[in-house]
Design goal:
Length: 1036
C-alpha cells in the first residue's frame, strides 16, 4: 500500500527494522521479529509494543523507504502486511523509477520526483474508494487493509471507523483496535504473542450501556444473546458510544418491518454511511426533535451566533441551524430562548453594507417583512443579530385566515362548551387575566411562529392557555400554520378524494367515531361527528402507511374543539409525523421506545421508587396510555387540555416530566402497594382527582371507590393541574431533548430486539409441529436463515433467493455432490419454490432439512426422485411438499440422472467402493425391470437399442465417470439433449419407464445403500461449524 511520504530517521528506526532488499535509492525493510521462528523474545517484545503503543496505526510488518545517498533522513513511501504485495511495489519502483533517477544531479530533485510519483499512485488508488470520504484518507486506508486481512468479511462490508481501546476478559485487559462496519463490530488485539479477535453482527446486539466497575470508572458494555463485552480506555468515549449506538440502531431498523421506521435517505444506501455522515445525522435528529420540524428537513448549516432579544435588552448566545425551510435558533442553555423562522416568511433578500461596532463590516441583511425581523450576518465572523420590530400587527393575517376556504369555518368549541360560565364568576375572570397576560406578552416577544420562546412563555403555558388563544398558539408552537399556508386547499382536496372510499382504515374510523369524547356536546351531534370523520379519513388517505390507529380519534377530537377543521388536520399531521415519530403504526414502536426510556428515567430520577419496585414493566404498561393519548384518556378533560398545551410547546419532554411528577407524587403509596392492580388503582384514583384551576365541580369519586372494603387507599383531593405541571418543571425541568434523543437511540435497540425475539418465537411455534428438528436445532437454523445476509430488507430476511439458498445448501446439506453440488442445489430450490416467486420461506426450508436429517429412507429417496422430474411434468402435477404422485414414471434419461446424483453423493465416503458397487447393481436391476415393462407394452418391437444403452450405462457406472453426465446440466441443457434424442428417431426409447416404487424396492435390496440413507446424521454439528460469524470467538 502506497503512503504519503513521511520522514524517518534511520538511526532510530534501525533498532526495530531489518533490511531485506536495498539499492541506491530504496530500502525494503521487515519489522524485527516478524517471521522469525522459535518465538524469540525480540519478536514478542516488538509485537507487544506495536499493540500497546500503536498510536498512529502505521506499524505494519513491511515497509519501503526512499533514501538519499549520504543522508540520514529517509521517507516511508509504502507499507504492507504481506511480503508478496511489498515485492510487487519493489519491482514497480525498480522497473519504472530506478533508472530514471540517475539523470538527476540534485538530491532534492530526486526526492521531489519520487514523492510526486507516489502521491499520484495514491490519488489513483483512493479515487473511487471509500477512503476518499474520510477526513484522514491515509490512516483510514491503513485501517481498512487491517480490517480486510484480519477478519475476512465480504468485500461489500464497509468499514465506518476504528477506535483504540481495551477489551476486558474477566480482569485482564486486551489492548487493541475496535472496528465498526455497516453490519458488524470487530475487535483485534495482538499482545505478547497472543492474538485475540472476534466479530459480532449488529443484529445480535441486545443492549448498550455505559457502566462503572471497580477497575474502570467508565466503560462501554455491549450485550448480545450469547455474551457480554466490556470496552474501556477510549480517547473519546462519548463519541465511540454514540457511533456504536447509531450503527446498531441503523442495522436493526433494516431488520424490523415497521412502516414508521424508514431510514433517512442518506442512510438507506450503506455506501453513503461514514463517520462524518453519522455525526451529521445525530445533529439533524436532535434539531428535528428540538424544534419539532418535518422529518424530511435536511440540515444545511450550523453556526454559533448571538441573537438580539429586545425583551431582555441584550444578546443571547447560542446556535443557528439552517434547514431546507427554516432558520432555527437555540440558546446555549436549552430552553432558555429559542426562535423558529420559516423561510417562507422571507420574501426579500437584499444585500447591504453596514458598520456595526467598527469591526463588523459588509453585513448580509435579510429583511422579514411579515414579522419585522432582521437577520444580520458578517462576512468576517459567524455573528448574527435578530432585531425585532414591535410595530407588528397580525390583524391582516387573521383576516386572511378567516377568508381561507375550509370545510368548517370555526372551531367546535365556539358552538359547544362544557358549561356556559357566568361572566361574573371566577372562571371568566381568570380567563380574562390570562388573556391580558398573553396580550402584554405578544408586543414584546412577538406573535406567530417566529416569536421568541423563552422561560417566560413557558410559565404562561404552564398556567394554561386561554381558550380564545389556544388554537392559534397550538398552530404556532407546532408550526402547523406554516404548513397550512404553504399548501392552500390541500385538505379540501383530500376530503374530496377520500370521501366515499372504503378500506380497513375507514371501517375502524367508523367504529371509533362515537367513542371520541362521548360526553362532550360537540360530539353528540351530526356536525361534530362528520368533522371528525373527515379529518381522520383525510389523514388515512394522506398517509396510508399509518392509516388510522387507536387514540388518533381522541387527539383529533380535542384538536377540532379549539381549531378550524383544516387547522385540526394540520395539527394531526404535525403530531403523528413530527412530534410523536413512530407512535402511530402497527407496532407502536415509538411509544414502546419511550416507555423503555421512561423506565430508565424512573431509575435515575426516582431511585427510591425503583428500589421498592425492581420490575418497572407494570408501571410502564400503565403509563403507555399517558404517552399515546397525551393524558387525554386518564385526566379530566379540562386538566388534560392543559397537558396538551405543554406538549405543543415542549414536545414529548413535557409528557416525560409530567409522568415523573405523577409517580413522584404517589411514590409513598406505590412503594407500599401490594401488587400491580393496587398500583393501578392508586394512579388511576390520583389522576381522576386532578382538577383544573377554575373547575368549580367537586371531586368525582372513582367508579370503583365504594369504600374501604375494596382496599382502595384514600386519594388526595383537589390536586390542581397547574400545581402538578409546575412541580414537574421544578423537579424534572433539567431533562433536555438531547438526553431524550440519546436514550431513544439506545433503547430502540432493546425494543427492536424484543420484537425480533417475538417474531422468532412465532415462526418457530408455527414450524415446530411439522418437523422433527429439536427446538435448539430449529432455533439455530432460523438464525442462519434469518441473518444469513443482514444487508437485505426485512421482508426478505425470512425468505431466501436462489443464490442465498445455494450458500445455505453448501453449509447444511448432509451429502455434497462434489463439483456438481451447485446443480443439485439449483434443482432443490426449483422443487421447494412452490409458488414460483423465486423465494423460499423458512417453513419450506425447515421441512426440507427435516426430510434430509430425520425422515425414513423412503422419504429421502422420494425427495431425490422429485428432484429429477422434469420441470414440465412437475408443473402439470399437484404440487404438495415432498409428496409425489405415484403414476409418474422416470424415463430412461431421468433415471440415469438420478443414478448419477447418487454416484456423486457417495464420492469421498469411507465406504465409497462398496457404495459404487451397490448402485451399479441397483442400476442394472432397474434397467432390466424397465426392459421387461417396455417389452410387455411394445410386444413385437425391436428393443436392441435400449439394451445397448443399458449396457453402456452400467459400464459407465463401473468406470466411475461423472464429469459430463446430463444430471449435472441445467434444465435447459436437459431439454436440449432430450430434443436431440427425439430427433434421432428412437421413438421406442422414450417409452422406457420405471416407477418410484420400483426404484425404492431395488434400493432396498442393497444393504449398503440402506445403511447409507438410514445412518443418523447430526445437524447440530453442521450448524455449529457455521456460526463463526454469529458468535463471539477468540483465537489464540
Amino acid at each position: 500500500m502506497w503512503l504519503n511520504p513521511e520522514e524517518v530517521l534511520l538511526k532510530n528506526a534501525l533498532k526495530l527494522w531489518v533490511t531485506e532488499k536495498s539499492n541506491e535509492f530504496f530500502l525494503l525493510q521487515r519489522r524485527r521479529g516478524h517471521g522469525d521462528t522459535g518465538g524469540k523474545f525480540t519478536g514478542l517484545l516488538v509485537g507487544a509494543l506495536d499493540s500497546v503503543l500503536d498510536s498512529n496505526a502505521r506499524v505494519t510488518p513491511f515497509r519501503i523507504l526512499l533514501q538519499m545517498p549520504g543522508s540520514q533522513v529517509s521517507w516511508t513511501i509504502a507499507c504492507g502486511a504481506a511480503v508478496g504485495e511489498m515485492n510487487r511495489h519493489w519491482d514497480w519502483l525498480v522497473q519504472n523509477l530506478l533508472h530514471s533517477l540517475s539523470v538527476f544531479e540534485n538530491k532534492e530533485d530526486v526526492a521531489s520526483f519520487v514523492k510526486g510519483k507516489v502521491k499520484g499512485l495514491i490519488a489513483e488508488e483512493v479515487r473511487g474508494r471509500q477512503a476518499a470520504q474520510e477526513e484522514e484518507p491515509e490512516k483510514f486506508r491503513e485501517a481498512l487493509l487491517k480490517f480486510e486481512l484480519c477478519f475476512g468479511l465480504p468485500s461489500s462490508e464497509k468499514l465506518v471507523t476504528t477506535y483504540s481501546c481495551c477489551c476486558w476478559k474477566g480482569r485482564v485487559p486486551r489492548q487493541g483496535w475496535l472496528y465498526l462496519s455497516i453490519n458488524h463490530m470487530a475487535f483485534y488485539s495482538f499482545l505478547l504473542g497472543k492474538e485475540v479477535k472476534f466479530v459480532i453482527p449488529w443484529a445480535e446486539v441486545t443492549r448498550l450501556e455505559r457502566v462503572s466497575t471497580g477497575l474502570m470508572t467508565d466503560m462501554v458494555r455491549v450485550m448480545t444473546r450469547r455474551c457480554q463485552l466490556d470496552f474501556s480506555m477510549f480517547l473519546s468515549l462519548d463519541e465511540a458510544f454514540g457511533v456504536i449506538g447509531q450503527l446498531a440502531d441503523i442495522a436493526l431498523r433494516r431488520l424490523l418491518d415497521s412502516e414508521g421506521l424508514e431510514l433517512d435517505r442518506v442512510l438507506q444506501q450503506s455506501s453513503n454511511i461514514t463517520k462524518r455522515v453519522l455525526e451529521e445525522q445525530a445533529l439533524r435528529t436532535y434539531v428535528l426533535a428540538l424544534f419539532r420540524l418535518p422529518r424530511g428537513e435536511r440540515l444545511q448549516e450550523v453556526a454559533l451566533c448571538s441573537v438580539w432579544t429586545p425583551h431582555a435588552r441584550c444578546h443571547t448566545t447560542g446556535t443557528l441551524f439552517t434547514t431546507d425551510s427554516y432558520l432555527c435558533f437555540a440558546s446555549r442553555d436549552e430552553g432558555h430562548c429559542s426562535l423558529l423562522i420559516p423561510l417562507s416568511e422571507v420574501p426579500i433578500v437584499p444585500y447591504c453594507s453596514l458598520v456595526h461596532k467598527a469591526e463588523l463590516l459588509h453585513i448580509n441583511c435579510v429583511y422579514l417583512t411579515n414579522s419585522g425581523v432582521w437577520l444580520l450576518q458578517t462576512s468576517s465572523s459567524p455573528y448574527y443579530t435578530f432585531c425585532y420590530d414591535t410595530m407588528y400587527c397580525d390583524g391582516e393575517d387573521i383576516e386572511e385566515r378567516a377568508q381561507r376556504q375550509t370545510v368548517n369555518t370555526e372551531a367546535l368549541m365556539a358552538c359547544y362548551h362544557h358549561s356556559q360560565p357566568d361572566p361574573n364568576n371566577s372562571t371568566a375572570t381568570m380567563e380574562q387575566v390570562k388573556e391580558r397576560l398573553w396580550e402584554d406578552h405578544f408586543p414584546e416577544y412577538g406573535r406567530g411562529v417566529h416569536m421568541f420562546r423563552t422561560e417566560k412563555i413557558q410559565k404562561l403555558v404552564a398556567m394554561g392557555i386561554p381558550e380564545s388563544l389556544r388554537g392559534e398558539l397550538w398552530m404556532t408552537f407546532s408550526d402547523a400554520s406554516s404548513e397550512l399556508a404553504s399548501h392552500p386547499g390541500y385538505y379540501s382536496g383530500l376530503v374530496t378524494e377520500s370521501m366515499g372510499q372504503s378500506s380497513l382504515a375507514t371501517e375502524e374510523i367508523e367504529r371509533d367515531l362515537h367513542r371520541s369524547l362521548p360526553d362532550h356536546p360537540a360530539f353528540q351531534n351530526v356536525k361534530g361527528i362528520a368533522a371528525l370523520r373527515r379529518v381522520l379519513t383525510a389523514y388515512a388517505h394522506r398517509n396510508p402507511k399509518i392509516g388510522y390507529c387507536q387514540s388518533m380519534n381522541i387527539l383529533a377530537s380535542v384538536l377540532l374543539l379549539y381549531t378550524k377543521e383544516e387547522e385540526a388536520f394540520s395539527l394531526l399531521v404535525a403530531v403523528c409525523e413530527r412530534m410523536l415519530p413512530d407512535y402511530f403504526n402497527r407496532r407502536v414502536i415509538g411509544a414502546q421506545v419511550d416507555q423503555s426510556v421512561f423506565e430508565e428515567l424512573i431509575r435515575d430520577r426516582l431511585p427510591e421508587l425503583a428500589e421498592h419496585i425492581p420490575d418497572l414493566s407494570p408501571l410502564s404498561s400503565i403509563s403507555l396510555s399517558w404517552f399515546l393519548t397525551l393524558f387525554l384518556s386518564v385526566l379530566p378533560f379540562r386538566s388534560a387540555v392543559c397537558v396538551v398545551d405543554c406538549f405543543f410547546f415542549h414536545g414529548i419532554k413535557a409528557i416525560f416530566q409530567l409522568g415523573l411528577a405523577v409517580l413522584d407524587a404517589n411514590a409513598t403509596a406505590l412503594c407500599a402497594s401490594a401488587d400491580d392492580s393496587q398500583a393501578l388503582m392508586i394512579l388511576t384514583g390520583f389522576l381522576d382527582q386532578v382538577k383544573y384551576d377554575e373547575d368549580p365541580s367537586p371531586p368525582t369519586p372513582h367508579p370503583s371507590q365504594s369504600g374501604e372494603e375494596e382496599g382502595r387507599p384514600p386519594v388526595k383531593q383537589h390536586t390542581l393541574i397547574t400545581d402538578l405541571i409546575a412541580d414537574s418543571y421544578e423537579k424534572f425541568g433539567d431533562l433536555t431533548v438531547r438526553q431524550i434523543e440519546k436514550l431513544r437511540c439506545r433503547h430502540r435497540i432493546q425494543v427492536l430486539q424484543a420484537h425480533e425475539d417475538t417474531t422468532k418465537e412465532n415462526a418457530l411455534r408455527v414450524v415446530t409441529p411439522d418437523v422433527s428438528l429439536s427446538p435448539e436445532n430449529l432455533a439455530d437454523v432460523y438464525d442462519l436463515f434469518k441473518h444469513h445476509d443482514p444487508g437485505r430488507p426485512y421482508v426478505e430476511q425470512y425468505r431466501v433467493d436462489r443464490v442465498q439458498f445455494k450458500s445455505l445448501y453448501m453449509l447444511l446439506v448432509p451429502w455434497l455432490c462434489g463439483f456438481h453440488t451447485d446443480t443439485v442445489a439449483h434443482r432443490t430450490f426449483t422443487l421447494l419454490d412452490q409458488d414460483r416467486d423465486s423465494l423460499i420461506t423458512f417453513r419450506e426450508f425447515a421441512g426440507w432439512l427435516d426430510t434430509l436429517y430425520f425422515e425414513e429412507l423412503n422419504e429421502k429417496v422420494r425427495l431425490l426422485y422429485r428432484l429429477h422430474i422434469p420441470p414440465g411434468g412437475s408443473h402439470s402435477l399437484p404440487v404438495v411438499l415432498f409428496t409425489i404422485t405415484l403414476y409418474y414414471c422416470f424415463l430412461q434419461r431421468e433415471f440415469i440422472q438420478f443414478c448419477k446424483t447418487l454416484y456423486s453423493m457417495f464420492h469421498g465416503n469411507p465406504d465409497e467402493n462398496e457404495l459404487f458397487q451397490a448402485i451399479a447393481t441397483v442400476t442394472s436391476l432397474v434397467l432390466q425391470i424397465g426392459e421387461v415393462g417396455h417389452r410387455s407394452r411394445c410386444s413385437g418391437s425391436e428393443v436392441s437399442s435400449e439394451g445397448g444403452a443399458g449396457d453402456e450405462v452400467e459400464d459407465d457406472h463401473r468406470e466411475g465417470s461423472q464429469e459430463d453426465h446430463p444430471v449435472f446440466s441445467t434444465e435447459e441443457d436437459g431439454e436440449r439433449k432430450e430434443g436431440t434424442s427425439k430427433s434421432s428417431g428412437s421413438e421406442s426409447q422414450s417409452e422406457w419407464a420405471v416407477s418410484y416404487a420400483q426404484i425404492l424396492a431395488s434400493l432396498l435390496t442393497e444393504q449398503q445403500l440402506v445403511n447409507f440413507f438410514e445412518k443418523p446424521m447430526d445437524l447440530s454439528a453442521k450448524v455449529n461449524q457455521n456460526q463463526d460469524m454469529h458468535d463471539n470467538q477468540e483465537t489464540t
